[in-house]
Amino acid sequence: MTITTPDISAVAPRTVPMLPLYAMHVRMLVIETLRVPIAVIGTMVFPALSLLFFVVPNRGVADDPVFATQAVASLAVFAVMVSALFNLGLTIAENREKPWDPYLRSLPLPAAVRISAQITATAVFSFLSIVPVLIVGALATEASVSAVGLVAGLVVLALTSIPFLLLGASIGYAFSSKAAIAIIQVGMFGFAFGGGLFFPPQFFPDWLETLSRFFPSRHARELTLAAVEGTTPELWMLAGALAWTLATAALALWLYRRDEGRRYR
Questions:
Q1: Local structure of residue 124 (DSSP, 8 states)
Q2: For the chain, percent helix, then strand, then coil, each to nearest 5?
Q3: pLDDT digits (tens, 9 = 90+) for 21-39
Q4: What ranges make up the beta strands (E) of the chain?
Q5: Of the residues 75, 111, 154, 250, which has the maximum number of CB atoms within 10 A of its CB?
Q6: Distance between CA atoms of residues 75 and 228, nearest Å
């Protein structure tokens, strides 16, 4: 009697490429956010209103091309930071409290893919929030930038926004939604004032100017301005941005795995 071995290749698990899963997650997260338009509109309008109310009436700043350009660049950084911290941090914190999240976490998907998809979807809306700031800056101030400087500034802003996105993810995985919103509000304004986004660092007292060099918002501001103005950034700016990126990436992945171990063991 001949014994034949059944062919199990048809039912054996196949390795699913990570890129299609990543793209699918990004698409669904963007659609989910668009279903609540007021959340997107609020994030986009707030930084532009800050420019309109606090910079435009100050003609000494708005009529000076250098100061106006710095103010627009600073509030563009602020727009990205607000969107990253609020949209990503609160979304993750709220999702962890919903029954749908445990099911998603049970799927065989690497943590890096899921976190990177959430970061990418948030980054899309973060950069949409820059558009109103640029429009107000172009129409109501004397800010000026070349086409090359604008593209370079957007590229650098995208890179320097990564720590804010990762920090938002870390807050979302570490705290409940009620705690996350309080921490984000305190952190947002602390980074904004300490990083020179509302008040130029050249007017800081010496102790605050030194302290602000350790803030990711200060690194983002200075590197974005250097790209816009075509100047060479200093070493402390580059080192600070790199250190914050690596530290927040490690923190976000660790908190994700810690949360996964606590809730799904």
A1: H
A2: 75, 0, 25
A3: 888 888 888 888 788 777 6
A4: none
A5: 75
A6: 14
Please answer whether residues 227 and 147 qualify as being in contact, where contact means their C-beta atoms are separated by less than 8 angstroms.
no
Q: What is the pLDDT of residue 11?
A: 42
Residue 85 per-residue DSSP state:
I
4 DSSP 8-state letter:
P
Residue 29 φ/ψ region, left for φ over 0, alpha for ψ in the -120 to 50 degree band, beta for the rest: alpha
What pTM does this model have? 0.83
Each residue's pLDDT tens digit, 94-120: 888 887 777 777 777 776 787 788 888
Question: CA-CA-CA-CA torsion for 62, 65, 70, 71, nearest 10 degrees?
Answer: 10
**No. of helices (H) and no. of strands (E), the chain:** 14, 0
Q: Name residue 258's amino acid.
A: R
Burial class (CB in 10 A: 0-12, 13-18, 19+), 48: buried
**Residue in the block written with tokens 């558009």:** 131
Q: Maximum Cα–Cα distance for the chain, whole Å?
A: 97
3-state per-residue secondary structure call for 226-259: HHHHCCCCCHHHHHHHHHHHHHHHHHHHHHHHHH
